[in-house]
Write a structure and sequence with these properties.
- By secondary structure, the protein is of the alpha/beta class.
- The protein has three helices and three strands; from the N terminus they run H-H-E-E-H-E.
Length: 106
């Protein structure tokens, strides 16, 4: 069985057209539920950023973890071209089992 990174190699360009986007009101719901007005968010398995980019203008910091270089490249282009605003995006080569982030960082 392929690992998390190689499983998506070569598919990043068409990934967004095949995957449904999360509901646009998801960040507002999660902010209300958490009680944190400007949360720091960690998106594990961020892929091309379908959910990551929903946090632009909502979160203070978004850390996107994605093991596939192809997927990270698409996400990085989206983050660079995304709306200007206070949200900072960090994109890391990492998996859920080894995020490299300190405990309670988001």
């Amino acid at each position: 069985m392929p690992d998390a990174a190689s499983r998506f190699t070569g598919f990043a360009a068409g990934y967004d057209s095949a995957r449904p986007a999360p509901p646009p009101d998801l960040p507002a719901f999660l902010v209300q539920w958490s009680g944190v007005a400007t949360p720091d968010v960690v998106d594990i398995g961020a892929g091309t950023g379908l959910a990551t980019m929903l946090w632009a203008g909502v979160a203070g910091q978004v850390t996107a973890l994605e093991p596939s270089a192809d997927m990270r490249a698409v996400l990085a282009a989206k983050a660079a071209a995304g709306p200007a605003g206070p949200t900072r995006f960090t994109i890391l080569d990492a998996v859920a089992e080894r995020t490299g982030l300190p405990g309670a960082s988001a």
